[in-house]
Design a protein that fits this description.
alpha/beta, Rossmann fold, 7 strands, 45% helix
Length: 236
């Protein structure tokens, strides 16, 4: 059993974020989630925050620190998509996605690092995507934001690695969520053909990789990109 930690997950009220929160709770950690609306799963503390607003993130951290103590593990999971072909994509479509997915992770990591440096311990886990490395037509904004997380994690590793802090990226492929469930059956079948595993992942399969990265067992892994994609993005 790993040491019990104080964990904060952004966007923990639904989808993958919710599954991550549930998995950390099941392992006995003190878990807080940020949400713009809605609540995290049972056993979590929900703090309302928007990753595009540094002041709201700061207030969220303060609330968690008061209740659970310093945040030791952060998972940057909050993300948006605004899929459009390049020629139809406006500058706002691009910058809004970057501001949430990439700059939002920067704001989170910056605020979290204060307590981690002091404690000489920290686990930073950034949720990227297979398309961050594979690319995807119609997702120039999203894939750019997701590949940017890799540079962020690797630079944080070089900067803070000697302080007992690790920073890693996970790159999920297709996951069974409300979003993928809405895809037409034929589209789902086509996607599954391109995945060597022949199926989508469950959100729990992604969550278990993240809880392992936060554990004592993964203390010497930093700056890594770990795919959870059934082989879809091999070689990247």
């Amino acid at each position: 059993m790993s040491t019990q930690r104080t964990v904060l997950i952004t966007g923990g009220n639904r989808g993958i974020g919710r599954a991550i929160a549930e998995e950390f709770v099941a392992l006995g950690h003190r878990v807080a989630v940020t949400a713009r609306s809605g609540e995290g799963p049972e056993g979590t503390l929900t703090v309302h925050a928007d990753v595009t607003d540094a002041a709201s993130l700061d207030a969220a951290f303060t609330a968690v620190e008061e209740q659970y103590g310093p945040v030791e593990v952060v998972v940057a999971n909050a993300g948006i998509t605004r899929d459009l072909l390049l020629l139809r994509m406006t500058e706002a479509d691009f910058t809004d996605v970057i501001d949430t997915n990439l700059t939002g992770a920067f704001r989170l990591v910056k605020r979290a690092s204060k307590g981690m440096i002091k404690a000489r311990f920290g686990r930073i886990i950034l949720v990227s995507s297979v398309v961050g490395l594979l690319g995807s037509a119609g997702q120039i904004n999203y894939s750019a934001s997701k590949s940017g997380l890799i540079g962020l994690a690797r630079s944080v590793t070089r900067e803070l690695g000697s302080r007992g802090i690790t920073a890693n990226v996970i790159a999920p492929g297709f996951i069974e969520t409300d979003m993928t469930a809405e895809l037409p059956e034929q589209t789902q079948a086509d996607y599954k053909k391109s995945i060597p595993a022949g199926r989508f992942a469950t959100p729990t399969e992604v969550a278990k990789v993240i809880t392992w990265l936060a554990s004592d067992d993964a203390a010497y892994i930093s700056g890594a990109v770990i795919p959870v994609d059934g082989g879809l993005g091999m070689g990247h």
